[in-house]
Design a protein that fits this description.
By secondary structure, the protein is α/β, with parallel strands linked by helices. It has 2 domains: 218 residues, 3-Layer(aba) Sandwich (Rossmann fold), CATH 3.40.50.300; 215 residues, P-loop containing nucleotide triphosphate hydrolases (Rossmann fold, 3-Layer(aba) Sandwich). Helices cover 36% and strands 14% of the residues. An 8-stranded mixed beta sheet has the order 1-2-10-15-14-11-13-12, sandwiched between helices. The protein has a 7-stranded parallel beta sheet with strand order 5-6-4-7-8-3-9, sandwiched between helices. Strand 14, helix 14 and strand 15 form a beta-alpha-beta unit. Helix 3 runs parallel beside helix 4 and helix 7 runs parallel beside helix 9.
């Protein structure tokens, strides 16, 4: 009898295991399973899309949640054919350097962007975060300079051949390090110019020979205007995190600066080169470019290069949305971060305001969790090195505002927590992009703490776009940030 029971139990276990193996994980799994969404599921035109977050404006919805799993179901497919660096036109010397740095094949966006840039076209490169966009423009620039330098006349000081413009000091320093790691092999000079001591530089100008200048917009604009940096020999201009630089807060200054350059429809690649080519790079890009862009480049000259995952949630990183009351957020945060600390998993916590960012840092430190903070209002001497401390593993918890969401590259981050849900969809994409990057550890994920009605409304739109398998809504909304705030202010006065 016992043998029969053993045989029956073994057969049942095999059957149950087979059933579980065939069971698909939902694209969206919910606390209330009736709202689960599966691959291929569609919705009736008359019934509409059933959203787990639809009732979240009601107080009784607290502690509800849903998780977007993306492509967790999809089996690992056979690796498709990828072009080599040689096939896309990268010269053998650069290929050897890339191999020494551990890069043997170009990523998808590099395969598309590098040939166009090498041929002298103005390009607009849009691709999901963490897929290698920085090398997509650095490699062609370095290859051009390798070809040009032997034919150039004696180079003047403070007269770069390529300028890479960024919206933040931290990003400029990071790109400078990457560029230096490659360029030093070819005796190409890389300089990094950031704000904070611009007046001192104007009184005591730097004198250096530089081929590639990586800089922030404000510092470079001032030193070009005063004649300290020359633009006559600039043949590459790159706007990294272009969607931020095209925001109303930067656009006027950017347009005024770029009108000084001779940006051609297509640059004649010869030695010495003719004209200046423009490259705009970002993880998100407004659907309609601002009119001011016409003042420095013909939009028709821009070759648009993108991947299929832009303006969508990252398909390989689970993202959890939790509906909480305002008073619940700090305790939930402490619970989440304590779990990460116990497992030694690095975590980034995002807030919308500097005051909240500082509060989160103080709150966690008071509860025995070592945390550092970084925000745009912080004095430069305090801010310098803080992200490096996180990046280098000296500390595993960092509280930050959106200054840390754009372009900063680290593969350590295991968990992103949005203590405040961002105001704009583009900001959400960039925040999430700090994890799940090339080389990141397995198990990366995002947790969103949702408490305010405005946050619920944006979450509903994001959930609907995932269920429809469409792009995220209003990705370019932040381009009109100042105009929208003015309209809102006028409405409040009128009321």
């Amino acid at each position: 009898m016992s043998k029969l029971r053993q045989v029956f139990r073994t057969s049942y276990c095999r059957y149950y295991s087979a059933q579980q193996a065939n069971k698909k994980l939902p694209i969206i799994s919910c606390k209330r399973p009736e709202f689960n969404h599966y691959e291929g599921q569609t919705y009736s035109k008359f019934d509409g899309i059933k959203l787990a977050s639809k009732g979240w404006l009601h107080p009784k919805s607290k502690n509800d949640y849903f998780i977007v799993h993306g492509n967790a179901n999809k089996p690992e497919s056979e690796p498709s054919y990828r072009k080599s660096f040689e096939e896309i036109g990268v010269n053998p010397e650069l290929i050897e350097v890339m191999a020494n740095l551990g890069y043997t094949l170009p990523t998808s966006i590099q395969s598309k962007a590098i040939p166009a840039t090498l041929e002298g076209y103005n390009t607009m490169v849009t691709a999901e975060t963490g897929c290698g966009k920085t090398l997509a423009y650095l490699l062609p620039i370095i290859q051009h300079i390798i070809n040009w330098k032997p034919s150039l006349k004696k180079q003047e000081f403070n007269s770069p051949l390529a300028v890479i413009i960024t919206p933040s000091r931290e990003l400029a320093m990071q790109i400078g390090e990457v560029a230096q790691s490659i360029a030093q092999v070819f005796d190409i000079n890389v300089s990094t110019l950031i704000g904070g001591k611009t007046k001192k530089k104007m009184l005591d100008p730097p004198i250096e020979y530089t081929d590639i200048l990586v800089t922030t917009l404000g510092a470079y604009s001032k030193l070009v205007t005063t004649g300290i940096y020359k633009i006559d020999n600039v043949h590459h201009v790159v706007l990294d995190e272009a969607d931020t630089l095209l925001d109303d807060s930067f656009l006027d200054k950017l347009a005024h600066l770029l009108r000084k350059f001779s940006i051609h429809h297509k640059v004649t690649i010869r030695s010495p080169p003719s004209g200046c080519q423009l490259t705009m790079v970002s993880a998100t890009m407004p659907v309609e470019l601002p009119e001011a862009i016409n003042s420095f480049v013909d939009p028709q000259s821009l070759r648009t290069i993108s991947t299929t995952n832009i303006h969508r949630l990252m398909p390989h990183v689970p993202q959890k949305f939790i509906r909480l009351g305002k008073a619940q957020k700090t305790l939930e945060l402490l619970k989440l971060v304590q779990a990460d600390v116990n497992q030694k998993r690095p975590v980034m916590i995002f807030s919308n305001k500097t005051a909240t960012c500082d509060f989160v840092c103080m709150f966690l430190n008071e509860n025995g969790i070592e945390c550092i903070n970084i925000n745009g209002q912080m004095a430069v001497p305090l801010k310098i090195g803080k992200f490096d401390a996180y990046k280098n593993g000296k500390v595993n918890v960092i509280s930050c505002t959106d200054i840390a969401s754009r372009g900063l590259d680290t593969i350590r981050t295991h968990h992103i927590i949005n203590f405040d849900f961002p105001l704009y969809t583009a900001d959400y994409i960039h925040r999430c992009g700090r994890t799940g990057r090339l080389g990141s550890p397995p198990g990366c994920h995002v947790t969103n703490l949702i408490a305010w009605p405005r946050e619920v409304e944006l979450v509903m739109k994001i959930e609907a776009s995932v269920r429809k398998n469409g792009e995220l809504p209003s990705v370019n909304a932040n381009i009109k940030r100042i105009i929208q705030s003015r309209i809102a202010a006028m409405g409040a006065v009128a009321a």
